[in-house]
Amino acid sequence: MNLHIDVPWILQVAEIAGAGDPAPDDYGVPVAACARHQAEMLDQPVYDGPYARAAALVHTLGCCRWLERSNLAVAAATGVMYLEASGISVKPTTQNAAALRDLLLDPKCTASRIAAELRTWPTTT
Length: 125
Hints:
Layout: H1 7-17, H2 28-37, E1 40-41, E2 44-45, H3 50-63, H4 71-85, H5 94-105, H6 111-119
Antiparallel strand pairs: 1-2
Helix pairs in contact: 1-4, 2-3, 3-4, 3-6, 5-6
């Protein structure tokens, strides 16, 4: 299943996870995140599978400043909620959240590194 989300969905996550943050500074970032997670090249998905697509969302939303203070929290919540909507119920620990934060703060961060991190998160059944 290739789940594609839209900007209103991301803004809803931002409203929940970024409670108290003012309106986004740059609406282009969630627009770019939506386009990126569903990108195709030669009729093949650039990001294949829910972990890779969640990572593309997390990477774009977490590395590009678009909220005043809750970019990282919203990026992580988007990843969790995307995986949940894709049928993968995850329950990240505090250590998982810290590892994701550290990845997003690393200038060498990539979507593939984030996908690898997301795959280590415990799942619930």
